[in-house]
Amino acid sequence: MADLTPTPGGASASVTSPPEPPRRAGLWLDAARPKTLPAAIAPVLVGVALAVEQGGFHALAAACALLGAVLIQIGTNFSNDAEDFVRGADTEARKGPLRATAAGLVTPGQMRTAAAVAFGLAFASGIYLIVRGGWPILALGLAAIASGYAYTKGRYALAYTGLADLFVLVFFGPVAVAGTFYVQALALPLWVPIAGLGPGFLATAILLANNVRDVEEDRVADKRTLVVRFGRPAGVRLYNACISGAVVVPASLYLVARDHPGILAASVLAALLGRRLARTLATSTDPAVLNPLLGKTAGLLFLYSAVFALGWVLT
What's the predicted TM-score (pTM) here? Predict the structure, then answer.
């Protein structure tokens, strides 16, 4: 920004002053994208609740699982910040929140280093879980970290080939819930990953809301999301399908087992709030409306998972 700044001799000269450096803590907090963290926390809540009801709750294992999930999410967000900029997907036309690398606040190398640190801390937090749960947990942790890198990095990056939605559904749903349950109870009934489909559907809805908002930018950047491939209306329909899936999962579990009726409250919540969010997505293209929709969908995911968890444990 041009400014009139006094020279050492007292005269004024027109110079280009550097932008005021952002507060470092705030910069990295924003880059971690805290509004996305419910997607990591929610399935852990469900996995813990399932373990509690089965008498398999293990506090240290649950805490390590939660920490690892959050750190992997943060590492993925850091990696995305760098790689989307390098690929040209984050430009001045971006409709979403400011990205630190694209804004020139950090270099791609610095952001990649931050991602490596977050992933390294995630692995460190999982060492106890590996000792407790064995090679399946090692394989799961490595796959989660590799997928975090592969989300926007590499020739076949998940976000650029239309595979990100499937990745989010699986890893933020059945895999996260089953992994959390297993490291506590050291067993894995079939109904556990099925229960994980609920949060998985809503985590996918967050991604779809993002991709519907960014469809034109992504098309220009050759980011071949499902919304780019099949169009905005298809993206809205997929969002609706994810809401419907979240409604069906608790209802199906109750109808099959005739137990834990409290989880039906999660179905009602998803039906009422989710449909309202879906209408907003279908009828608006205004970034001022769609940006908050991502946070609201994440809020629905967290509330849905908390209600499901309480319903499972208390009824």
Answer: 0.88
